[in-house]
Amino acid sequence: MMRRPVSLGILALGLLCLSCQRHTPPPAGHPSPPEISSALVTPAGQTTGRDLLGQVQTDPRSTSQVMARISGISVLSIDHFPGDRVRRGERVMVIMSPDFFSAESEFSSLLSSSPGGDVRGLKRLAIRKLRLLGASREEIDRLEKTRSPTDRYEVRAPRSGTLMRVGPSVGTRVAIGDLLFVVSDLRHLWVSAFLYPGENAGLSKGTPVQVFPLHDLSRGVPGTILRVAPFIDPQTRTIPLRIGIDNSGNLFRPDAWVHVRIPIRPGGGEPLLRLSAGAVVRRADGKTGVFLLRGTQPPRFVPVKVLGRDKGEAVVSGNLAAGDRVVVRGLLPLLAEENARIAGEGGG
C-alpha cells in the first residue's frame, strides 16, 4: 500500500537534485567561457580588388574660367547656356562696353593717321591692347577694313568643350574680374575617392584602376591614380585619392557618384585571403589582427595586414591559410584578455 507514494517521493527528490546541478553557478574566479562562433578563411586569388565610392569632378587642366577683362554697362545677348557644347573661338555672349569702344577708337584713329613717327609701333601696341581685352583676330580684321569702332564686346570660348556655368544674365552690368562662364573639356575627368589609413600601402602615382557607373558595373573605363595624399583629412579621417580617367565615350558626368576598383596584388609572395570584416580587431598597441581557431587549441591573436574591405568582407595577408577559421562572435572578452596580456608583458 505504501510503495507507490515512496517511489513517487524518491523520483521527485531526484529531479530536484538534477535541477539544482543544472543551475549551480560556476565557482568564484572561474567565469563561464564566452559563446564563440567562427567563419571560414577563403583564398582571394592572386589579383583581387578593393572597391571604393568616388565622385566625378572636372579636370582643372581641361577647364577654363572666363573672367571679364573689361567693364560693361549691359549684357546684350547670351548665345549658349550650361550644358551646350561650344567650339574654340565660338561666341558665347555680347556685352555693351564703352571702354571697349574707346580701345577700338584708339586703334581706328591710328589707322587713319598719316605715316610718320612711330605709328607702326603704336599700331602694334593698340592691337596688343585689343587682344588682351579679348578681341578676336576677326574683330581686328573687321576694324582694319571698316575703321568703324563698336561698343559690342564679343566674348568667345577659349577652348572647345561644354559650358558648365554662365555667370551674368541678359541686362546685367559687368565689372572687371566678374565670372562670365566656365567651359570644360569633359573628355578628361578626375575622380575623387578616399582610403582608410593602412589601405594606401602599395599605391602610388600611376597605379591603374577601373571606374564604373554606380549602377552599371558592366561598363567600366580604365583610370590612373594621379595622387595619393600624404596626409589624413581631419574631417573624415581618410586619405584623399585623385584618379584621372579618359571620358571620350561620354560615359560620366561631373558630380556623379562612381564605383572605383583598385587592384590588390600580394607583396612578398604572401597569398591574399578573404574573411569576414567583423573578425578583424585592433589591439591596444595598435596591431590589427584576428583570433585564429585551429583544432582544439584556444583562440590566439594573429596579426594581419588589411588590404581592402568590401561588402562585409576584408582582404588580408598574414600568417593564415585558406581553410582556417577565425572568431567572429565573442571577440570582446578575447580582445580584453589579449590586451591585459600584452599590458602585463609591458609592465614586466
Automatic annotation (TrEMBL):
InterPro entries: Beta-barrel_RND_2, BSH_CzcB-like, MFP_Cation_Efflux. The keyword Transport applies. Residues 63-185 form the CzcB-like barrel-sandwich hybrid domain. PANTHER family: CATION EFFLUX SYSTEM PROTEIN CUSB, SLR6042 PROTEIN. It comes from the Bacteria. Pfam families: Beta-barrel_RND_2, BSH_CzcB. Residues 189-262 form the CusB-like beta-barrel domain. This is Putative secretion protein HlyD. Residues 1-24 form the signal peptide. Keywords: Signal, Transport.
